[in-house]
Specification:
The complex is a heterodimer of chains A (about 450) and B (about 475). Chain A has about 450 residues and is α/β, with parallel strands linked by helices. Chain A contains 14 helices and 15 strands. Chain A has 2 domains: about 140 residues, Aspartate Aminotransferase, domain 1; about 240 residues, Type I PLP-dependent aspartate aminotransferase-like (Major domain) (Aspartate Aminotransferase, domain 2), CATH 3.40.640.10. Chain A is about 40% helix and about 15% strand. In chain A, α5 packs parallel to α11, α6 packs parallel to α7 and α12 runs parallel beside α14. The longest helix of chain A is centred in the last third of the chain and has 27 residues. Chain B is α/β, with parallel strands linked by helices. Chain B has 3 domains: about 40 residues, no CATH class; about 130 residues, Aspartate Aminotransferase, domain 1; about 260 residues, 3-Layer(aba) Sandwich (Aspartate Aminotransferase, domain 2), CATH 3.40.640.10. Chain B has a 7-stranded mixed β-sheet, sandwiched between helices. A 4-stranded antiparallel β-sheet of chain B has the order 11-12-15-14. A two-stranded parallel sheet of chain B has the order 1-13. Chain B is globular, with a radius of gyration of 23 Å. The chains are: A alpha/beta (about 450), B alpha/beta (about 475). Chain A: GO terms for molecular function: pyridoxal phosphate binding; transaminase activity.
């Protein structure tokens, strides 16, 4: 029961629970059915079913209820599983403790993020490409930043996405009002340009066949296909954006998984600063999926058609619609980027990479057409002629493994299954064995 | 909260840049004759200039017209900028901040140790957790429901945990979309209006009345007891209402809130009730809109741990969307809000959530009440000071803000005067809307000695 606080000059212990309240409860209409006159937002009406990942969770729960003794293994939602390195956790714990001291307490932080952290991000990830710390905006994660970028851009811009792609780009576009209706025949929203990425085109869109849009979402290494665009491909992309006066939103959340010399940042491409925003995250880098920390880079050189710097408007969004990432998470971020922390993080990433290798090798060994697993913690498996939800169900029912059906990422994902490599080693080994059995 | 550093910007063609942080003159982005403060020497070209050697590349993406409607920067970064500028001018001044409502006292140990424990737990196999439910951790949702909404029929699954009320306000705007019209108290917390502009719900800013088109401003003044005369208020889809109020400190009583709920019901409107300061209430006023019968069918409530637990930097809040709240077609608002939260958000950080749970333990509640009591004592000191100086003073009893009237004077002028002469930062009332003109908001968050010193300086200035 909520005990109302007393003002310190009043007698203490006075319960101020309103006497009228009990009586008025009896009059309260507990029934449903009285609507307001506020129309539902048509953009939300347009959305097709639920967001993909809660749907996967729901299926997982249903399966657990059906088979309570099944040893369900999740290769579905890309959720990190390994503990955060001790020194990083300790840094956060110490920071939390310090908030109880006069010297260590801090209130509102800069909405753009802690300056030391911003500098560390630049030092770690953008040293050679001359991004400034003032161009880095710390956030509570890429998914949140994507929506803030949509708020920034407004409903009148057009977007292009890779097909398949991380569903938040399309869904946030629909929510903000950039998209038209969903077409059942094509499984696409109108007014969004879907850039097909498949084995035939080396998972890079045919830009000659791509209509100009204002914004181009591009994720590399890619979720879900795991393809990391080459330098030449990204040069093409930047040129395409420049020629069309478009803005690339480059999602580099998986950059730390790159093994070869594919670019880790769009800014490795000359001219990118004038055409690209980059978003990234500590989630898959440091196991911060629950801790919540990421960042977005908006270069000063990026200008709207009027010459107005995009960074000014993004700063305004961040100051008005956000209040900064949690200071404790930011302390953790800083620890991740210290030399000790970074070393520990790299070991974690190697661990997941090894998982990916095991998974991909297993699948390939039974003749499945599998992509990825090299530069990203996902395996992208092709089941030609099959429907991805059917394969999802088959794998779930027969092997008790949760995956993600490719069509959840767009029509270009139909016929594919995404398997994530996040998991305890034993689970990955067990899952690989089950899959080999299932598909051999 | 640091304002963006404008110094490093290069050869941008905008002249609107620096003026974006100038207040109080209303900023018209189309007026390019505003002088530019550019630090780096470079070629500044107008937009339509032909291609020459030193041209600046522009994309072909139009700026969001809604962003262009905004007047100046968000209020609080502007206050921070003024404070920083003042410190540069008077490097030895002991500047005291009673401006931005930022908590200053350390977080009680019972709460921080719970957070520290969660941090350490994350480095263990059993204690590690990845993505949490976007709606928030179950135990915390249950604790919020039972602490604040017990016996009101608000359940755990009506609660959505967030990283703070300000963020929730924007997510609610995303939910409502651009085709709704809103009403705000005047004056009010600037995020309601600004987020409405950004979302495209409003018209242009009208300089003569200092209001955006298509927003209903509900005047709240001493004369009407800081409660709007609803008989003169046009119907809107959404009504933002904050009580206890930021900035006026006024707390609506049961009758007033009953009127408000009735008004919303009759008009089929949705109230977004901001109860972030409810725990500062001394009087016998409702602490939540859901104390009013029928409110569940017309109201959303948003709240925050910021001012209760000193979580302004830690980031934790919540929004209540009752199951009974329906759109005109009968679709539950909570379902759409859930979709927003799953798509545009990924949950509050697990560490602050552990802190939130500790806040709502008996020991945590007691500790929070002590800190709140401390700030309330600060408020009393400030109220007494201005009263003794003969000012008309409002607020202070139910909120950590004191709303001081300076009749006939421009609030930015008073702000500047106070800053220049006493080195105390306050917040000019006009920053909260035209209804705030002639008032200054003094926030009561601060170390006791600073509050006492600030009051001493006020006494000197206004003797």
């Amino acid at each position: 029961m909520y005990k109302l606080p007393t003002f310190c000059s009043m007698p203490s212990g006075v319960s101020l629970w309103p006497r009228m309240f009990q009586a008025s409860m009896k009059l309260q209409n507990e029934g449903y059915g009285r609507c307001t006159k506020v129309s539902r937002n048509v953009n939300l009406e347009r959305l097709q079913k639920d967001y993909l990942f809660p749907e996967i969770s729901k299926r997982e729960l249903q399966h657990l209820q059906k088979y309570p003794n099944a040893k369900l293994i999740s290769l579905g939602i890309g959720d990190t599983t390994e503990p955060i390195p001790e020194n990083i956790a300790l840094s956060m714990a110490n920071y939390a403790h310090a908030l109880s001291t006069t010297g260590g307490y801090s209130g509102y932080g800069a909405e753009q993020g802690n300056q030391v952290l911003r500098k560390a991000i630049v030092e770690t990830f953008y040293k050679d490409v001359l991004i400034k710390d003032t161009e880095v905006f710390v956030s509570d994660g890429a998914q949140c930043d994507i929506s803030r970028l949509q708020l920034l851009l407004g409903s009148k811009v057009t977007i292009a996405v890779q097909d398949p792609s991380f569903p938040a780009y399309v869904d946030s576009s629909v929510i903000i009002g950039q998209a038209g209706d969903f077409k059942d025949e094509t499984r696409k929203y109108q007014n969004i340009e879907y850039m097909h990425c498949g084995p035939q085109n080396n998972f890079f869109p045919d830009l000659m066949a791509t209509t100009r849009t204002d914004i181009i979402f591009f994720c590399s290494p890619n979720n879900p296909t795991a393809h990391a665009a080459t330098r030449e491909q990204l040069q093409q992309l930047v040129k395409f954006a420049r020629d069309n006066g478009s803005i690339i939103i480059f999602d580099s959340a998986y950059a730390s998984y790159i093994m070869d010399d594919s670019p880790r940042s769009i800014y490795e491409i000359p001219g990118a600063k004038e055409v690209a925003i980059e978003i990234s995250s500590f989630s898959k880098f440091a196991g911060f999926t629950g801790v919540r920390l990421g960042w977005t880079v908006v270069p000063e050189e990026l200008l709207f058609s009027s010459g107005f710097p995009v960074i000014n408007d993004f700063n305004r969004i961040v100051s008005t619609c956000f209040n900064g990432a949690s200071n404790i998470s930011q302390a953790g971020g800083l620890a991740c980027l210290s030399s000790e922390g970074f070393g520990a993080i790299c070991s974690l990433i190697d661990y997941y990479r090894e998982n990916a290798k095991i998974l991909v090798n297993s699948l390939a060994s039974v003749g499945l057409e599998v992509y990825g697993g090299v530069n990203a913690p996902y395996a992208w498996v092709h089941f030609p002629g099959s429907k991805s939800w059917d394969v999802f169900i088959e794998i779930l029912e027969k092997a008790h493994i949760i995956t993600v059906p490719g069509c959840g990422f767009g029509p270009g994902g139909e016929g594919y299954i995404r398997m994530s490599a996040f998991g305890h080693r034993e689970s990955i080994l067990e899952a690989s064995w089950r899959l080999e059995k299932l598909f051999s | 909260m640091a304002a963006m550093n404008t110094n490093n910007l290069g050869t941008s063609t905008i002249s609107s840049l620096s003026s974006a942080f100038l207040a109080p003159t209303s900023f018209n982005s189309r007026a390019r004759s505003v002088p530019v403060r550019v630090k780096r020497i470079g070629v500044i070209k107008c937009v339509a200039a032909p291609q020459q050697e030193q041209t600046v590349y522009q994309t072909n993406v139009s700026r969001n017209a809604n962003m262009a409607k905004l007047q100046a920067g968000y209020l609080f970064p502007e206050i921070a900028r003024r404070r920083a500028a003042h410190l540069q001018k008077y490097p030895n001044a002991q500047v005291i901040s009673l401006g931005i409502g930022d908590t200053t006292e350390p977080i009680p140990e019972v709460i921080t140790s719970a957070m520290a424990k969660r941090c350490l737990g994350l480095s263990t196999l059993e204690g590690y957790s990845g993505y949490g439910a976007e709606q928030g951790e179950k135990l915390l949702r249950a604790a919020i429901a039972s602490t604040f909404y017990s016996n009101l029929g608000i359940e755990e699954d009506d609660i959505f945990v967030s990283d703070g009320a300000k963020c929730d306000i924007s997510r609610l705007q995303l939910l409502f979309g651009s085709n709704v019209k809103m009403a705000v108290q005047d004056p009010s917390y600037p995020a309601y209006v600004d987020s409405s502009v950004i979302m495209g719900q409003t018209g242009q800013f009208q300089k003569d009345v200092q209001k955006y088109g298509n927003i209903e401003y509900m005047r709240c003044t001493p004369e009407n007891g800081f409660f709007p005369d609803l008989s003169t208020v046009a119907r809107t889809d959404i009504i933002f209402f904050c009580s206890p109020n930021n900035p006026t400190g006024a707390a609506a009583n049961r009758d007033q809130l009953t009127q408000l709920v009735k008004f919303a019901k009759e008009n089929g409107s949705i109230i977004v009730f901001d109860s972030a300061y409810a725990m500062y209430m001394s009087d016998d006023n409702p602490r939540t809109i859901f104390e009013i019968p029928g409110a569940k069918e017309v109201a959303i409530e948003t709240s925050s741990f910021s001012k209760y637990a000193g979580f302004t930097g830690v980031r934790l809040g919540w929004t209540v969307v009752p199951k009974q709240l329906l759109f005109s077609d009968g679709f539950p608002v909570a379902k759409d809000f859930n979709r927003i939260v799953c798509t545009c958000f990924n949950g509050a950080s697990n560490i602050p959530q552990a802190g939130g749970l500790a806040c709502l333990s008996p020991e945590g509640l007691k500790a929070m009440q002590e800190v709140i009591g401390f700030y309330k004592e600060n408020t009393k000191i400030i109220v007494d000071t201005f009263n003794s100086l003969g000012f008309k003073v409002y607020g202070g009893a139910n909120a950590p803000y004191v709303w001081v009237h300076f009749p006939g004077r421009s609030s930015w002028d008073v702000f500047s005067e106070i800053l220049e002469k006493t080195h105390v930062v306050t917040t000019p009332g006009s920053g909260f809307g035209p209804g705030g003109e002639g008032f200054i908001r003094v926030s009561a968050f601060g170390h006791r000695k600073n509050v006492l010193e600030a009051c001493r300086r006020f006494k000197e200035l206004y003797r």
